[in-house]
## 1
Amino acid sequence: MKIVAKPIEMICWFDTNQGIHPIRFRISLDDGSNKVINVEKVITRELEKLAGNTMWVFDCQSNIDGFKKQYQLKYELSTCKWILFKI
Amino acid sequence: MSRIIFHIDVNSAYLSWEAVYRLQHGSQIDLREIPSIVGGDQEKRHGIVLAKSIPAKKYNILTGESVHSALQKCPNLVMVPPNYERYVNASNAMISILNQYSPHIQRYSIDEAFMDYSNMENHFLDAAYEIKDRIKNELGFTVNIGIGPNKLLAKMASDFKKPDKVHTLFSYEIEEKMWPLPVEELFMVGSRTKSKLNGRGIYTIGQLAKLDRDYIYSWLKKPGLLIWNYANGIENSEVKKGSVPVKSVGNSTTTAFDVETAAEAHKVLLAISEMVGMRIRDLNSCGSVVSVGLKNDHFFHYSHQKKLDIPTSSTNTIYKTAKMLFDEMWNGEPLRNISISLSELSSNDFFQLSLLQKYDKRDEILDRTIDKLRFKYGYNSVIRSCFLHSGISPIIGGVMMEEEYPMMSSRL
């Protein structure tokens, strides 16, 4: 996986145990078009506290353009921003 | 019973926090591995080096020197602006890890803390390595931990070899580990004391320690005795919970352009008074000495102060006094830095009024109302109209954050 760190638009659900479950996200590509990706499987979720800044890190897997791909999403608590961190 | 004190010191704090934050957000470069600095904005003339990376150290770049001269020493130096909110978060995260090891923690500054680890079940060395590694793994930055029988020796120990190390300095190790060091490495020995000591042939901490106690007292008086004690590893202050009580509140600003007219200077004074006033009211105290400091375009600094009859926390009173002091001492030269500070603080519960000075309760109510508005809707929700289109920001000074942290202090 390579670091891309791109901001994305996200639909997710929050359960009653403070769990966060990403469902699908939209990313704008370099050519100006948008791409919607369904998060098919969340493999791991981890709380990261680097430099005291809390982020949830999700390792996920989806079918993208016919290929099974692994990627990493990050959710920053202080700003409520989602990023596609690695793919 | 002998004590075990830890001193935890973040390695190049601002810079490593900045580096970790950037890596967390996908930066491909680790600022710690290239010549880089955290520095103020040169355009606004806040251009000094606040922190440097270890590779930058090799170019002989010093903390506190101007960004301009740092760039001359290393032209491809990477410079990043400071962000205090991030640093406070990082510092808080570190303290919350320390809290899991001991209830006695003293935050000495934003990047340093003392911890009392006496009478603990686990061995202190295991604990120190565990803390160091946890901070590295969980928070992503490295620290040095110094361990000693008191705060002074712990602090000296954490300074030995960096980064990411644990050092001990117990009484029996002083001769071997501390005495060979140059005398200026000792806590509280600054450049002036150094030259005094060097002048009499004292170059190492050991030489200072071996001097006769009476001799050093007759020569340098009480401060001399203090550093003599330190050189011998004698120090016994408690690890104080919380921070040291505030003794004065002050703010200053280096203006983006030289201030050349009295009207401009008065506006800057007013903007600083707003900040000082808000901070003093936030502490629920009043101050009775107002002092104003000026620095001219040749970096010459001078100041005046005045004692008030009634301790005050009112922005208007601070401003009026500051303005009067300013008018008394300013001779019309261009200014680059202006500061105001309020000292001799007392609680604002009750105070003696004076027959000679006007006191208006409404001032206090007005200030309190404005503070509440600003707290709720932001600093710039209520501003004085004189700042409109003036190019001067209506509230100036310091690091804007809810909590104040002690910067470095000379008291352990």
## 2
Amino acid sequence: METDSVRRGLERFMEMNPHIKVEYTPVPGDEYHTRLLTLMAGNAAPDVFFINAEGYYRQFVERGVLLQIDEYFYKSLSLEDFIEMDQRKMLVDGHIYGSSSCVVAPVLYYNKALFDEAGIPYPSADPTEALTWDEFIAIAKKLTKSKGRITQFGAYGFENMHPREATIYSNNGLIFSEDYAKTVLNDEAQQALQKILELRTVHKVSPPAAFLEQSGMNAAQMLQTGRVAMVADGSWALQELAKMNFDVGVAPLPIMKRPVTTGTAHLHSIWAGTKHPEEAWKLVEFLSSEEYQIGLVREGLWMPNRTSLYTPEGITKWLNPDVHPEGFEKLASYFTEYLEPNPALFVPRRAWDIFEEELDKFFFDDQPIETIVSNAKRRIDPILAGQ
Amino acid sequence: MRWERLKYSDKFWAAILLAPNFIGFLVFILFPMIASFFLSFTEWDLLTDIKWIGFGNYQELASDETFWKVLWNTLYYTLGTVPPGIILSLILAVALNQPIRGVKTYRALYFLPVISSSVAVAVVWQWLYNPEFGLLNYILSLFGIEGPLWLTSTTWAMPAVIITSIWKNLGFNMLLFLAGLQGIPDTYYEAAEIDGANGFAKFRYITLPLLSPTTFFVVVMSIISSFQAFDLVHVMTQGGPARSTSVLVHYLYQNAFQYFRMGYASAIAYVLFFLVFIVTMIQLKRHDTWVVY
Amino acid sequence: MKRVRIETILAYLILTLGAATMVLPFLWMVSTSLKSLSEVFVFPPTFFGERIVWQNYLRISERYPFGQFFLNSIKISAVVVFFQVFTSSMAGFAFARLKFPGRESLFALYLATLMVPFHVTLVPTFVLMRFFGWIDTHYSLILPSLVTAFGTFLMRQFFLTIPVELEEAARIDGCTPFGIYARIFLPLSKPALATLAIFTFMGTWNDYIRPLVFINSISKMTVPLGLASMQGSYSTDWPVLMAGTVISLAPVLIAFLLAQEFFVQGITLTGLKG
């Protein structure tokens, strides 16, 4: 659980800074940002808080409730300390309003026993040797088994957020224009979505949309129970997988045209109304420090966002054989060289909700891609324009 | 003495007795209602300055596809819950009104879902609706039916929420009908029996007309409360998939507290009010023609 | 000579089938809450696992302070019920039996607000709570619920049915209007007060949207909100989730079964009023 690790980190911080007292209030559930807004509107926001990059960070910056921390930030840190995707995550019009502790991005997990059983060699963890989409389908077909009805599926997860965007990008597809002022969904993007759908409809290697999730299992449980041989899911699943007793392997997502994954993660921001900006920054600085993130990275929940932690020596600081599968170090470059921010980071939540809704119609309701694209453009563009 | 006179004064005591209630009424009922009306003409995210935009929100509503979808879903939900809910609860009430044993036990069992919180009911039904390991599809499979994907299907998610809602409220409506049935004097039935009326004829010509005040009450209350559905939807589906279960109050909540659009949410609230108002007016007008004594 | 009527058999059949439908989800909930996760994911589903897994209950109560949720819910419901019965009966009495200028128009105003759905007031109430600094406090759940037009209306309607003669006799004996309210009307209206209390209690106890909007901290959550937030964190751990649901429901269901008559009579009364 995230909260325990965070608590330990905060205790360490208070030992280092005895004059600062940190009160930690975890807010469970999906309503976190609603509550944050409530507190800010009520002039009772905490000095430092966690904020999601997607849908909220930029929205809150726009409303002027996050303290601009350029001055503090550049005093002790530099942008180059962070991997490129994270720089893009933090910067809003050239300024910084929140500092980040980690990145997370989708990868491909597989159940090694099922590969052994089918006599298929494990896919490489090296992004330059990632499976092509066709190779991936061929393997997935071999890993799909049926006894009357399908009992083991080859692959799952590409219809979900994150693997879906990564696959679109891998085909050189674009969801929004570069300045996020327009919906694009070009031919490459449409083609990628079509290919994802075909995993289920044509190749029959994927279970019905969201079927397994509704079956009450999450990706890790599906992989563990052998119902699915390969699962595209966020890097955070490592933590849970490590606690399950089975041999799991990790590889980059299969590529259409280029290797790429799409990252996200939270930031720590300071409330614009804080009375203690100095102390607040101390905490934010600690929360983005190597020391703090290594703890959570070693548990498999996060991936580092410091460039220093991706050098051969840096990797040894966090690589944990109990959590990170064999050969994981080869995957490290995936997070430095092939990582792009998920487009959800740059559009309002309302626009993204419509995007999701339209894609649901594509994946669940058999609506043709052309309809989806024209609907998405018509409905999302006014919101993007109104920003 | 002044107090001697005062203590017998109606006006004085009316003021004293009304005061606590009236203050609460003003601050927490009347003021918010009026404020909401004004907010519906503004654009406000609680954090930045409030902006007057006239009919802007209402114009946007008219062209907001999501809003129309949500409005349609609300009507779908109402049509799906009210008539079946009323018919089923009436059948149960009539059955319970027969000379049978264990009335109290039956009544208690039917009432369990009513007193359970809708959040708990939603969580339990989510599990029942599980396509693969849920009880519901298993039971269907015993009858050779392959159950749908329920909450992840754009076609079946709304019926699933509707079924849960009917299940939850059945006992309540049944109890109201039962009270109504017990208010019908036996002499009517005895007279009908002498005239040779059979069971159905008695139901059609005595029970239904004499029960009409109760039916009227139950229908109006059910319609109004189904316009305001939120809990089940918010916990079971969050309005998905593809907004197929998103209803008015859910969209209101999203706009206010997820998209931070207080003005737009207030405009949706007033549309909701308008709907309830129409239903109330129609019912008030039709009360005389429908209710037969 | 007693013959079994076909209607009676049919009634038993319908009622038993219906009752099974009502009870089955609850049994399934309890059954799941006592299984291990792997036993939940089997097909066909079974009602009894191989062994009883009490740990689900321990795990959920370690993480979620259900005791605290209950205390919060009890506190809030008790205060709301008490004051609502109190303010509604006083105002209902004034509207029903005291003569003062503007009575009819004021009552009409109350009636008019009955038509306005509660959700219309959600956003402004939120703004108001922020203004008073009551966000994330129990004040935000208690104070706006102390007065309702419905309660006032219900009490007024009931007081109207009490014979005028009683009141007139008391007035002749030198009873003040307050005395009439406290010593004659209140004791006579126990059923109506009970009805109002039950409805208010159920509404407050099960309320979801208000705590959702106003409460942030775990320690201040009510039972339904606590349950919903638990659902957010344990979305796929069904046994633990069901254990939490059982904990949240059991006390209320037991209380109901003990006080069934009271509940049923209370609810029936409003039905007749309508």
